[in-house]
Amino acid sequence: MADRKQTSSPLPAAQKKEVQWKFWVFGIAILLMLIVFLQNSQEVAFKFLFIVDTSAPLVVLLLVAAAVGAVIGYTAPILRRHRHQTRKEYGKN
User: Fold this and answer.
1) What single DSSP character describes residue 39?
2) Please, which residues bridge with residue 53 across strands?
């Protein structure tokens, strides 16, 4: 039995640790946004399409801009994928 080669068994899932780079990037982005928000707490004048003319803390405006960017970044690929699937269904390239 000494002639048999021992095959190494794969490591259990608990011992295999992959770096979750998406979580690290997301965490670093949140940290950087938090630093920018905390450093910009002054009041600023805000005008939007000749409708809204007010002043607000810059932090609030930055949060709104970040939220709008996150919504666009989340929904744009979904809409693009849907459009691509629709074209495939109707036989268009």
Assistant:
1) H
2) 47
